[in-house]
Amino acid sequence: MGKDSQTILHQTFYYQPYIKYQGKLVVTVYDMISEIFPQYFPDGNTISLLKRRCCERADKVIAISHRTKNDLVRFFGIPPEKIVVIHLSSSLKGNNASPSVRPFREPYLFFVGQRDDYKNFGGLIEAFATSESLKKSFHIVCFGGEPLSSSENVWLKKLGIEARVHNVRGSDELLCDYYRNAEAFICPSFYEGFGIPILEAMELSCPVICSNIGSIPEVAGDAAVYFDPADTVSLQYAMETTLFDKNRLDDLKKRGLERQSMFSWARCAEETLAVYNSLFQ
Hints:
Elements: E1 8-11, E2 24-29, H1 33-36, H2 44-57, E3 60-63, H3 66-76, E4 83-85, E5 108-112, H4 121-129, H5 132-137, E6 139-143, H6 150-159, E7 165-168, H7 172-181, E8 184-187, H8 196-203, E9 208-211, H9 216-220, E10 225-227, H10 232-243, H11 246-260, H12 265-278
């Protein structure tokens, strides 16, 4: 047996391993966004080709959701039995016992991450801007991503809500404070390979209102209010019928805490180790 015969190379991104490697190969695939939305990724063909080659060459493929697994089968024709689904968890676990400081004075809706393309921030803004009750009662705080651009500010001003949309960045501790004090976390994305911010919100008792497509329902389960991200009326209705109902918000907080407890990095590590062990049985 060669010296590499009992070794495992686990690729967490897509690249060509050195040619003489003779051991087992595992690759983790996080999403199929560049295949589903090629118009948003100018270099998507190169990434997609590398991803396909890695998956075809691998002894096992780890997908972070059943949706990602199904998309791997659909787009690349990877045999389902070669793919193992291992869910992720939240990296904010452990910060949720810290004292909370209210970082924003007014009631606000919380959005996390990049705002462009398939993240559908525009759909959230349109639904918000056309609702008098939402505009009067809430602000929108976006955490992370780039600062609001000049074109975004012009757009928000045209809609008459430039004073009610804010972008902030900071530490994990600050992120936790924003989750804890938000009226709700809104995830309007057209697609997510998993959706870690959903778990972050749930573990910090922040009600979740989210899209009904991609892997999002797989993560959120029965602990969220869903809407069709392609329909701003659906998004607006979900927010209006949830945000003014204290009992419903309290129920979402309770369900969220129960739901997020199903996901852990310890479980993720154990299941990954099981994949490794299976390669030598």
